[in-house]
Structures are given as C-alpha cells and as structure tokens.
C-alpha cells in the first residue's frame, strides 16, 4: 500500500515528487477504467454541512456536547444502536437528533465528490456506488437509488432491476420513515417532522387503521400495539431488511469483473463494509485493477496492506480537484466534449490544408525553376576525345572518334560508299607565242664618249631585238 500524504505541512522535495507521480498514475487509472465500483462514507458529505461520525467534529461528539447530562447516552454511537428503543429517554434523543439531521440533509447540496460519481455514470464508467450515507444527496443529481422490494421479487427481473441502480444504500434512507411493526414506508411530512423534533415517534397510520377496524368489528386485538414511525435506517444490532437483495446484487457485480475500486470518506470500521471491500478488492486485483482509498484519517496497514494499493490522505473534494487538473476531459459534459472534438478536427484539417498548400507551392516552384533552367541553359559542345580510332579502307582512311563512355563496348563505323578511282591531275606547261616573245625586251647597252673620245657602252631602255 502506497501512502500519499497531502495533509502534512512538511514534505521533502523527494516526497513531493513521488506524490505527484503517484497521483498522476491514479488519475491515469481512473481515466482508463471501464467498470468502477465506488464506496462512500460520511466524509464525502462534510463539505455539504453534514457532519461525519467519528471525527473530532463528528456526530458522536456533537451528541455528547448537546446532551452532556444524559447518563443513558454513554457515547454518540448509542444513538444508532437498536438498544436505544429500550429506553424512553434515549428514544426521545434519537428522534430529536434524527429530525435535526434530516433538516440538515434536506438543505444540503451535493459536493464535488457526489458530482464525480455522476461523471462516472455519464461516461459509462460506473458499475455501482455503495454508500453508507443516509442523506440521499445523490438523489439531487439524478442518480437512481433506493430498492423497491416489488421490483426484486421476481428472479427473472432481478438483474435488470439491480443494474438500473446507480447507488445502493447500505444503511437505509433518512428521507423515508418506516413503521417499527409492519415496516410500512412513509414520506416525511411537516407534521411528522414537528413530532420527531419534539422527541415523539408518530403512530403508524396503517397499524392504527387496522387496530380501529378490529376494535369496531369486535375482534380480538392481536399484538396489542400500534407501530411507531422512525427514520428508515439500519441501526447497529438489527438485521438488514434487504440483506438478501444486497448479497445477491453484490455477487452480480463481482461477476461483472470490476477493474477499479475507489473508497472515499469512510474509516472502514463497520464489519459488513469490511467484507464488501475485501470481496470487491479481490475481484479488482484479479482483473489487474487498482484499489484507491481517500480519507483524512489513515488506515491500519496491518489490516489493509494486501487489499488497498493507494492510500490518499486528504479531503475528498480536494482529491477530485486533483483529478480535474490531471484529466480535465473526464469532467466535461457531452456537449463540451463534442464541441472540443469538433474544434480539434477543424484545427487538424486547417493544419493539413496549410501543409498541402505549402507542398503544392513547393512543387510548383520546383517545376518553374526546372523549366527556367532548361530554357536558359547553353547547348553543350562535344569535347574532343583523346582517343582516335582509324580504320583503313581501299581508298582512304576513315577517322572515327572513340567514345569513352561506352566502357569497352564495341563501336561500329558506317560502311563507306564505293566510288570510281579518279586519275591524278597532270601538270601541263604551255609555251609562249611569238607575239608574246617579241614583246619581251631586255635593256641594251648605249655607247658613250669618254674623255679620250672613245665611245663607251651604256645600258638604255632602247629595245634590242634578240
């Protein structure tokens, strides 16, 4: 059993961190559970103004403070014991106290813990809620409660009637009155309330009518007493009038295999409640579920170590606030959930649309860039290859380029076109004609006279015939 103490004012950083981790694990378990069984006690109604039983400000101590001089009431628990009907003074105190408690519960409003039970039902997570409370605050939030004996008489309709119950009242209903003789049930009226507040038990109208009928018929009066009305609650020491129905209903719930048990606002002191917790806890653990205990006062570890997994020491409403912070979606109404899902889907679609538009724009930009590059790119020139392959033919040599990219692949050259062999051109020298020879002249020497008078030869431009 892991204890999470949220009331201690002095916690180390390590303890705070462990508490946070454990609370997160509890919240996750609550959110994932599908068949949750809840057991509640008087502690869940304290914030509604209804005192619990065993705390310092509980009902037992309030009784002692209100009736300090009454020796017959040794402790507050005596007001909820069947033995009080043996003493007239104790019975008067019981009537007065129950009238006061009824007035408090009638004016009280459901707490956050009560609303949490309603949330579990709305989310189809609630298998059953067993309560030790008699204030009927669950009825104000439209939880189905109360066992109608007529609905459970037939075996064929038992399961259907039991499954229709949201809350099972283990200790009765303060908002109903019952006859101590014939067990006829009555609603509280203003007349009954005033009588009980004054310490007087009203007479049972059914028993009184039967008594008068037999009296006027001259019949013998059997029993000799007329029943008195008292709150329809189960006192310590008396048999539960619906014990068989409760036992059969509990077995039905155990067969449903609950996966979580949440115990809130009870100290688990009553024997019948102890047996119920052990039975349900065993079924939950067999399913792999967890048992959570929430209350201000701790449990005895020697007794509950093997039955309870988490012990959370705090106010019940404070625990519900922690759950709201950890798993807020659980506490939303169906309309709010639908609105949130719609908004999330719209945001998701908007993000997907933006992503698609970005991808389309990216592809369009890439295509435009590729088209622009193709239109402006220069025409590549064939680079000369260093390897030249020559192939001799009959007439001349054909030079072919060897492409290195073929990597040794066979390279074929086109065939040559056959042609007739041409003779080599002849060099013909032509002789000049006489007329052309006559025109050719060379310079002739002309005579010149020297100082001795001897003529000397000189070249002139006079034509000389050869």
Automatic annotation (TrEMBL):
Give me the ranges of the annotated region Disordered. Answer: 408-466
> What InterPro entries is this protein classified in?
DHS-like_NAD/FAD-binding_dom, NAD-dep_sirtuin_deacylases, Sirtuin, Sirtuin_cat_small_dom_sf, Ssirtuin_cat_dom
**Gene3D superfamilies xrefs:** SIR2/SIRT2 'Small Domain, TPP-binding domain
Which residue numbers delimit the Deacetylase sirtuin-type domain?
Answer: 16-340
Coiled-coil stretches, from where to where?
337-367
Q: Which GO terms describe its cellular component?
A: nucleus
Gene Ontology molecular-function annotations: histone deacetylase activity, NAD-dependent; metal ion binding; NAD+ binding
What does the record give as the active site?
Answer: 171 (proton acceptor)
- What are the Polar residues biased-composition ranges? 457-466
Q: Where does the record place Basic residues bias?
A: 419-429
SUPFAM superfamilies, per the entry? DHS-like NAD/FAD-binding domain
Keywords (alphabetical) are: Coiled coil, Metal-binding, NAD, Transferase, Zinc
Under the heading PROSITE patterns, the entry gives: SIRTUIN
Query: Which residues of this UniProt protein bind Zn(2+)?
Result: 179, 182, 204, 207
Domain of life per record: Eukaryota
Q: Could you say which protein family the record assigns here?
A: Belongs to the sirtuin family. Class I subfamily.
Q: What is this protein called?
A: Deacetylase sirtuin-type domain-containing protein
